[in-house]
## 1
Amino acid sequence: MHSATIRTAIRGPLLAVAIVVIFAGTALATAANGFHGTILAHGTNGDTVQVNDGDIKFQTKAAVDFVSATVTIDPLGSSGWHSHPGIVLVTVASGAVSFYQADCSVIVHPAGTSFVESDGDTGLARNESTTTTAVVYVTYVVPAGTPNSGLRIDQLNPGCPQS
């Protein structure tokens, strides 16, 4: 066989395997269920920011978008496994949210508490109540130009029993 024929014979099956892996990952990603977000505002801060005010330090190295949203989580609703392209500040307004990390650990956040999700961290937010709706207020700080559809990145279940 000629080397070009061998390369073609190998390339076809490798391409098929790559396509199967890509589509399998998409099919295995966990979708949100009973998780309803409403964007309230989306604005761009074109200036870099460096603020150090006592116990608070906030810094950006380029333009960023601030996106404010309200999320309602139905009883037993779930965000599905996901990550975000930047920093997410979450305040639980009512109900409680159980936030599962990729190591399957969980922290329960009752009304009146806040938590942070950060770039690249995979997690799952779930309302464990069978009767009470949870409401959270969310502020995303993401790279400038991030579309609303890109605020959440579906991820595979890292092997935890929650889905």
## 2
Amino acid sequence: MPKIIITPLSGLEKTIRDHNPSHVVTLLSPEHMIDTPEGFHPERHLKIGVNDIADPALGTAPPHDDHIQSLLEFGRLWEASAPLVVHCWAGISRSTAAAFILMCDRLDHVRESEIAAALRKRAPHANPNRLMIKLADEALGRSGRMTHAIESMGPGTMADEGPQVHFPLAFGIL
């Protein structure tokens, strides 16, 4: 079954070994960027050097439009014949935002609020990066629906690191 798997960096190697994904998205701060995992072609590994910042005025390397465009283009190249793995440092903010963005783009016939509810159900710890969501909302022309859906999720449960989360592409089983 086609799916997106969210994992923290600490679980990346095991996730790749156990699920044999065709594509990997890495969202890490530029100074902590990793090499392409062994056995992957660089064109199937998207590296986005971005800090987990929701307000661009508060730090360096915040998410911006180019990051979101790269994510969307990469996601559209994924044929979904094998899983796509999305990871950040802890598997809580940047990676859950990226998975939500990819799901909204892939399942454009499904309401954003339903995808957000499915994300909350599968990932109680999720705290998607609000700036990434805002930028994707604008890029996809969603008129604030993605932002509202994420805000409606409420805060995630406290966690230092999130567990592996499987997000199937088939809406009926979200």
## 3
Amino acid sequence: MAQAILNGSILDDGGLDCEGRFQYGTTLALGTYTPWVRSGMRTGDTFQALLTNLMGNTIYYFQAEARNALGAGTAGSVLSFITTLPAVPEVAIMAPTLLAEYAATLRGYIINDGGRGGSVRFEYGPSTSYGMVTPWMSGYITGDTFNHRITGLSPGNSYHCRAVFKINPIVYSGDLAFTTPSEVGAMTLIDDELLHMLEER
């Protein structure tokens, strides 16, 4: 959702303290009001209001209003603004590090948090159905990297993983596949072979 800050000014206080507010909407009928703010304003004073939960890429109309103890004064001209589309949250998966026969370190990166932080984790498993998840880690914003060490893997097997960014809605990275190293052969086999070669001599 988008947001905007509206600004108004008291042009004539009528000799009394004033307070101000805004009326706004997606049509010239307006219809939505902000609370009255800044009681005690006089000519030349300014006031503002933060509008939240606005629709992106939409024209909004608004006008400033003021009142004093005698009642509401003349409202300002109806003006308009266009909201922008909010940044799209995006998370990426990076190549795992410290690959071992039974473990790997999964890594992710927050490309864009959409203007608000969130929690992250990884999904992983032998296929793109994943099936296993790491614990949620909170407090991540644009530019942050994150990682988690997973264990219990099998040597020489292929796995899939993806990063998850929990805001509203949840955002997923693309899929990434990796393979654990094969298990090293038992040293006793090498010893037996060397022993056999020595016996032949």
